[in-house]
């Protein structure tokens, strides 16, 4: 396995689907991305691996959380500016509708054993998800538990 990654670009296909271009080959599948760039599973490339997986799985619907402290600060700043007494309205998304996550759970992308583990923010709702991708499987996105 090469220690080097080929050039990798994230983009969107003409039909709007998320695509990753590795070298000059387009792929729409995280498993194919690993076949095209096996070095992605090397822990030193975990951030690139997480970006590729997240983009292919959800395009721009989720932002990778690379800096947990910055995410914590941003989340709480938004949460603290909301009026907790405001009535819940259809279509209005407020962090108070969800609660506060356990920020200590959120870590930068990492390989945990053979699994890729990272956290991503749902861009529309603003809440964090834990993402686990086991070898040979598609990534699983699970919202973090939230408390009021």
State which percent range the strand residues make up.
25-35%
Distance between the termini: 47 Å
How many separate domains make up the residues? 1
Low-confidence stretches: none
What structural category characterises the helix and strand content?
A: alpha+beta
Kindly state the number of beta strands: 10
Q: Mean pLDDT, rounded to whole units?
A: 93
The string of secondary-structure elements, in order, is: EEEHHEHEEEEEE
Q: What does the secondary structure layout of this molecule look like, with pairings?
A:
Elements: E1 8-12, E2 18-22, E3 25-27, H1 30-36, H2 46-58, E4 62-64, H3 68-81, E5 100-101, E6 110-112, E7 115-122, E8 128-133, E9 140-143, E10 146-147
Antiparallel strand pairs: 1-2, 2-3, 4-7, 5-10, 6-7, 7-8, 8-9
Overview of the molecule:
There is one protein chain. The chain has helices at residues 30-36, 46-58, 68-81, and strands at 8-12, 18-22, 25-27, 62-64, 100-101, 110-112, 115-122, 128-133, 140-143, 146-147. It is α+β, with helices and mostly antiparallel strands and 148 residues long. It has one domain. Strands 4, 6, 7, 8 and 9 form a five-stranded antiparallel sheet that branches. A hairpin with a 5-residue loop joins β7 (115-122) and β8 (128-133).
